[in-house]
Amino acid sequence: MIVDAEKMIAIGLVWGITNAIMRRGALIWDKKIQSLASKAHQSSQIHQRVLGYLKNWLNLLLIWQYSVPFLVNLSASAAFFAILSDSPISLAVPVTNATTFAATAVSAMILGEETHVGFALFGTFLIVLGVWICIM
């Protein structure tokens, strides 16, 4: 049980860290899209709008600052589903989700995003306490 909990915490850490890094990549993509949108005119035909959305999505995947952490995040998701075959879902979901939330908050702070540091650290402490209670 403890080994499974360690795997759940590791997956939550990977998810949380990659969430914060993917946000950075998404911000880069957003700036790129805004600069392109100011140059392009809006189309009203449905097929052109769909093609525009697909092009935007492809542009997002071509930004390595987004796509690399996204692939790592997806790999952690595959590992999570593998763990679910051996662990109770009533333990796996709260532990991984709580760890993800805490890791995202701490990673965002490390990456320099604006946060209320005191609230984030207090919330992270409560999450760690909750995960510890779930595991014990």
Automatic annotation (TrEMBL):
Keywords: Membrane, Transmembrane, Transmembrane helix
GO cellular component terms, semicolon-separated: membrane
Top-rank taxon, per record: Eukaryota
Pfam family, one: TMEM234
Subcellular location, principal: membrane
Record membrane topology: Multi-pass membrane protein
Compartments (UniProt record): Membrane
TM region(s), chain numbering: 63-84, 91-111, 117-135
UniProt-recorded name of the protein: Transmembrane protein 234 homolog
